[in-house]
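#struct-queue
[09:14] JT: dropping the first one here, sequence first, then the structure tokens:
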Amino acid sequence: MSERQNDMTVFRGFKANYAFFIPYLIFLLGGGFVLVIWNKPEIHLFINNYHSPGFDIFFRYCTLIGLGWLIIPVVLGVSFLRLRYVISSLAAFLLSTIINDTIKQVVGAARPAEYFGEMHQSLYYVPGVEIYHWNSFPSGHSATAFCLFCILALVMRSNIAKFAWFVIALLVAYSRMYLSEHFLIDVYAGSIVGVLSTIICYYTAMKMEWLNKFPAMDKPLLKL
């Protein structure tokens, strides 16, 4: 397949999945604008000022969606559509995790609790949530959520579902800021790691010629 054909395949993929990618691009543009205009402590203090008992409960549990266990229901779900999607999901999750964790260890950035603690600035913390102090950049929960919900958006036909997956991923990312575990720049970068990992692995798996030697790869689990 030529480079031009590859570009057209990706373009058609974006067009077919506009219900996920257009809102995501709006998030990138809006988030990028905010990051340019205000610095990260100002952004975080603004977010930290708005909380309620109901939101405390909601985001305390919403954030759990971004943990690694999410790969299990995603893999099981896509296996009933096409086994090739299983390879895409596992590869994207692995690539996203490796990239994200490597950057975390190299950068070693302070999380909000440590950052504001050094400034003797108090924050509101949701009761019962364990607060971490280091390896803030990028957000692993955000990377995982955007990676796996992007996979679901790519393999499903419903535009409503595609948009819903974006909203859930965004809520997970926001929960990391609401809980004062990450700054906006952390979840912003984490989302990029997750989405790019998914796009690379999905389209690579779809174009792998050697997988065509195994007809089962393009069948759902129930039809094997």
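[09:21] JT: and here's the second one, same format:
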Amino acid sequence: MQRDIKGCATYGGHGEQMAVFGSHVSIKGRKLNDIIGTPEFPAEEWEQMKKDVTQGGAAIIKLRGRSSFQSPSYLSVEMIRSAMGGEAFRFPVGTYVKTKKYDHIMMAMKTTLDKDGAKFTVPKGTPEENAKLDASYEHLCKMRDELVTLKIVPPISEWSKINPNL
């Protein structure tokens, strides 16, 4: 059952650029990584599941002919509730990231949103998961840099002039 599964998350970019972190998942208290590669959950099934997760949005569009708004709307209301003093929102969301490793980029991180604002931490996973997050970051940087080249957004060096918080 869904309530038995804890810690499911994707980080980084969207769609096929998502970094699926299975190392944070537990099922009825059992770590997913202890099950992957066993007869109970063969590695091939895990690889297919990661593919299905990263292509889930495309599958919804193919089935419905458009994107889904129900889930984002619900989560938006939950985020507003958290910012207004309700229970903290602790799902990965796109956030502005500026660290030594990931710099001047919007990407999904391990995030907490509450009445005091948004805080994020960089998720720590397996070497494979961390490499996928790094690849997602590189993809996002290329997209950001294309927007700068096309003069849709200003160069990073000018961002703090527009918003001193950047």
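[09:30] RK: nice, looked through the second one.
[09:31] RK: The two ends are 42 Å apart (CA to CA).
[09:31] JT: good to know. The chain has a mean pLDDT of 91.
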